[in-house]
Amino acid sequence: MIIIILIIGILLGAFTGWGFLTIADRHSRALLVTTSTFGALGAVAANQLLSWGLTVWGISILPVLAGSIVLPLVSIYGFYFGKNYFKKLRAGN
């Protein structure tokens, strides 16, 4: 079951990152890897912590979908926050 959850998380995390990059008109392979990783982590964590909604093969579908979309969005925010912070730090402002 956990392999299926990881695959769902990786795919939805990558799709979330791709959607953000498309909307923001940016290109970053590092961000796609980051969102895929955090998508998998979010899906597994949500499935382990929450057990509500539709269940298929022991997988709580709604928490897995929410975790694999919300955590990559948080990682996107952190990615660009850190990037801008270090850019300002290098500039000396």
From TrEMBL:
**Organism whose genome encodes this protein:** Oenococcus oeni (Leuconostoc oenos)
Protein name as annotated: Uncharacterized protein
Q: Which domain of life is it from?
A: Bacteria
